[in-house]
């Protein structure tokens, strides 16, 4: 049995907003296959829904696995002026105890600027973030640099170059694992990523980048 009466209402509403978002980036297609247990029936406990975990005592969401929710066969709607699929960071402020977030393999090419800093700043407990296998470029780094509690950051197989950032990830002083493999980073711009400031870093993967042939460390 849970040690609580059910998930928090604000988090249940937030989860349903996330479901609507992923249905929208699929152009309304495959709606009956996306987060099917996330239903607004007024009965089910959202802590029992798929792809998430809750704190055993407080009932707050601590883990969200939202990977591969953009169906590869669905239409690619224009939710920005240039047709790039934008990750809406304003979806996540309700989850104040979120510790692990997986958003990999969703074709995200950017993040929304509206409320972005406020929303990311609310993720004060976030330890693990997986944004691998998307289409994110250097613009994501300024948002990630506000997530100062991160210990693991996965950015493999994106479009990060390091050429358009000043501070990189220098604020992430607790970071222990950083995966930047499979990006078009060159030795010319590696210093701009702020890696020398990451004193607690134990594992760094720069494999399969332009100019890097060394394996992960």
Keywords:
single chain, 217 residues, alpha/beta, Leucine-rich repeat, LRR (right-handed beta-alpha superhelix), seven-stranded mixed β-sheet, two-stranded parallel ribbon, 3 helices, 14% strand, signal, Leucine-rich repeat-containing N-terminal plant-type domain-containing protein, repeat, signaling receptor activity, DNA_repair-toleration
Describe, in plain words, how this protein is organized in 3D.
- With 217 residues, the protein is an alpha/beta fold.
- It has a domain at 51-73 and 81-205: Leucine-rich repeat, LRR (right-handed beta-alpha superhelix) (Alpha-Beta Horseshoe), CATH 3.80.10.
- The protein is built from 3 helices and 9 strands.
- The strands form 2 sheets. The protein has a 7-stranded mixed beta sheet, with no helix packed on it.
- Strand 1 (52-54) and strand 2 form a beta hairpin.
- The longest helix has 17 residues, at 9-25.
- The radius of gyration is 18 Å and the shape is globular.
- The model has no long low-confidence stretch (mean pLDDT 87).
- This is Leucine-rich repeat-containing N-terminal plant-type domain-containing protein.
- InterPro entries: DNA_repair-toleration, Leu-rich_rpt, LRR_dom_sf, LRR_N_plant-typ.
């Amino acid at each position: 049995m849970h040690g609580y009466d059910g998930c928090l209402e604000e988090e249940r509403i937030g989860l349903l907003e996330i479901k609507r978002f992923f249905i929208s980036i699929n152009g309304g297609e495959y709606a009956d296959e996306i987060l099917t247990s996330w239903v607004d029936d007024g009965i089910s406990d959202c802590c029992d829904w798929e792809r998430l975990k809750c704190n055993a005592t407080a009932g707050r969401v601590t883990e969200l696995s939202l990977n591969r929710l953009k169906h590869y066969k669905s239409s690619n709607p224009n939710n920005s002026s240039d047709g790039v699929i934008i990750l809406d960071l304003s979806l996540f402020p309700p989850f104040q105890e979120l510790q692990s977030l997986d958003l990999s393999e969703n074709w995200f090419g950017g993040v929304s600027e509206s409320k972005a800093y406020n929303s990311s700043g609310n993720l004060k407990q976030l330890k693990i973030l997986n944004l691998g296998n998307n289409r994110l470029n250097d613009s994501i780094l300024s948002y990630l640099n506000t997530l100062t509690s991160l210990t693991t950051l996965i950015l493999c197989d994106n479009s990060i170059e390091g050429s358009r950032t000043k501070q990189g990830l220098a604020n992430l002083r607790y970071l222990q694992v950083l995966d930047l493999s499979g990006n078009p980073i060159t030795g010319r711009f590696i210093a701009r990523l702020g890696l020398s400031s990451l004193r607690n870093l134990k594992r760094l993967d720069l494999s399969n980048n332009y100019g890097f042939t060394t394996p992960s460390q």
